[in-house]
Amino acid sequence: MKYTVLLIAFLFSNICIATSEEVDYVIVNKSEKKMYLLSGGLKIREYNVVFGENPKGHKLQEGDKRTPEGRYILDYKKKESAFYKSIHISYPNQDDISSAKARGVNAGGSIMIHGQKNGFSSMSWVSQRFNWTKGCIAVTNFEMDEIWYLIKEGTPIEIVP
Predict the structure, then answer these.
(1) Cis ω before 68 (30° cut-off from 0)
(2) Which residue, 34, 27, 46, 48, is CA-closest to 129?
């Protein structure tokens, strides 16, 4: 019982600290497989992430299983989806749409930061070891809870190779 109380107090203190920090920028480094949350230019959180099955290079079209590269906005949150919570990335932007149109393809969309596929949260110890999404950025459900509270809609995100 004593340890349960200590654990709850520890978790509560981390949530209180987390909510007092305002994330104003997110950087995803694909080659490092990391996502960094920044506040005032300082890194306040770091997460191991996985991407689409074809992670090298910028997303060129729907179905290429690549994660886009560039600057976007985290424009809305979605609690109900096929994955545990998700935050939408504003891909495609106008440049992405124009580039895809010039090649005669659809740029795609629905790129998110999300937790594990619903019903598979206990498997994150395996799924977070390889790229498995269709172009999204995946974290564990525990991490997604923290990210969910730290990131506000309208936060800029930069995804770099």
Answers:
(1) no
(2) 48
Backbone phi and psi for residue 90, each to the nearest 5 degrees, phi listed first: -75, 30
Map out the domains of the chain with their CATH numbers: 23-160 (2.40.440.10)
Residue 125 binned pLDDT confidence (cut-offs 50, 70, 90) = confident
Nearest-5° Cα angle at 140, 106 to 118: 70
pLDDT tens for 1-19 read 555 444 444 454 454 454 5
Measure the CA–CA gap between 5 and 36, rounded to whole angstroms. Answer: 31
**What distance, in Å, lies between the first and last C-alpha atoms of the chain?**
47
pLDDT for the residue 21? 79
SS3 of 46-105: the string is: EEECECECCCCCCCCCCCCCCCCCEEEEEEEEECCCCECCEEEECCCCHHHHHHHHHHCC
Q: 33 and 146 in contact (C-beta within 8 Å)? A: no
Q: Look at residue 141 in the predicted model and tell me its pLDDT.
A: 94
